[in-house]
Amino acid sequence: MTSAQVEKDPAHTAGDAPDGGEGYQRGLGARQIQMIAIGGAIGTGLFLGAGKAISKAGPSLILAYALAGLVIFFIMRALGELLMYRPVSGSFSEYAREFIGPFAGFVTGWTYWLFWVVTGITEVTAAATYMTYWFDLPQWISALVFTVILYTANLISVKLFGEIEFWFSMVKVTAILGMILICAGVLTLGFSDAGDTASVTHLWTQGGFFPHGVGGTLGTLQIVMFAFLAVELVGVTAGESKDPETTLPKAINTVPWRIAVFYVGALIMILSVVPWSEFQAGVSPFVAAFEKMGLGVGAAIVNFVVLTAALSSCNSGMYSTGRMLRDLALNGQGPKLFTRLTRSGTPLVGTTFSAALMLVGVWINYQWPGEAFEYVVSFATISGMWAWIMILVSHLRYRARTARGELPESSFKAPGAPWASLFALFFLGCVIVMMAADPDARISLYCAPLWALLLLGSYLALRAGNPEGAAFAKRR
């Protein structure tokens, strides 16, 4: 059964809010959607992970972020076109089910759910670690408190989730804009300890713009793409946006300037103040810049920001996992109990189940922080990219059907389609190939076949026990 059919089936909407899409409440306003979209593109990958990428590519990392940002824009515009065709909470899982097949929807939904569960485990663990900077607390206490708070907030209402995410994103945005302004002041006014040496010429005089050659730049693309994981989260909010036809296109159209300011702009400023050769893996470029300028509070500021980024990711995980499980259940591809909503229109059982797994994962991480757990964490990256691939393939299939007159055209057409989507698919394919060639990133691919076999076995069992759940039902 499809979610479109479920909306007409009172047996599946008991307790649902009457004003929401698929039983959800449309409680997310334009202000919250915009900040969710912005926050989804800014995470610990920028605040912490960029140090390793800078050491490998030098100033040419700016170009890598710009190119990857263009691809992300193509992906988001493809998603936007699909969202305006049919804005549903299941988002890319629903589109994969409709345009590729029931198995594709099954794989996409469960894979995206796993991505956020694993991400939630790692992020709440990281948040507990960041708390030790200020407080001498056992990490399990902080992890438990954070999980319970975010879980409770997500069950109260979608509006509260949106409000929390709004302020989390505000902290990240303010931190980056503040760093850009400080660096601009150092470059133009010459204040701080870095005033005498800061210069935009650092971008090309420290071994050139490509100090390690073009190969060094290409080798960072997987790191760069990982930094953008979760940008697609705005698509999951479609069923709960107050005015999706207006707010979602606006949020998606901000992708270019978000990337231009928060990634390209921030890197240009930081690398102008601090020569790229002074960065190293494991050290935040923001901390390095603060230290170069003689600002001792830099480490505390960055620690607070990455704590916020980790909690933001955890909050998003709580939100998206419950929705994905409910979408799967509504389509007969998951346990029916996941369809249950609270009176405020939030997925009770799905969110509870996911939060419980996050807590178990945190405990496992504390008890056995070995290679097995690292394999699972690394798999989160490739599973996140799977969602992007499904968005692009679904978009190509949708365009083909609209060209044949089988479906109505979307009000928010992706520019350059279908060639832009084909280019984005080719780019993602190249990133996966480079991951396979990189010993540090290859680990992400090892778990994929095992997960695929598990899903295939589960799907075959589903088809045997519930043929309707494994069969595509036409919506139109």
Automatic annotation (TrEMBL):
Main location: membrane
Biased composition (Basic and acidic residues): 1-11
Record's keyword annotation contains Repeat: no
Segments for region (Disordered): 1-21
Signal peptide: none
Residue ranges of domain Amino acid permease/ SLC12A in the record: 33-459
Keyword vocabulary terms for this entry: Amino-acid transport, Cell membrane, Membrane, Transmembrane, Transmembrane helix, Transport
Coiled coil: none
Compartment(s): Cell membrane
Membrane-spanning parts: 35-54, 60-79, 99-119, 139-161, 173-192, 212-234, 255-274, 294-314, 346-366, 372-396, 417-437, 443-462
Membrane topology: Multi-pass membrane protein
Keyword presence, Cell membrane: yes
Sequence similarity: Belongs to the amino acid-polyamine-organocation (APC) superfamily. Amino acid transporter (AAT) (TC 2.A.3.1) family.
Protein name, UniProt field: Amino acid permease
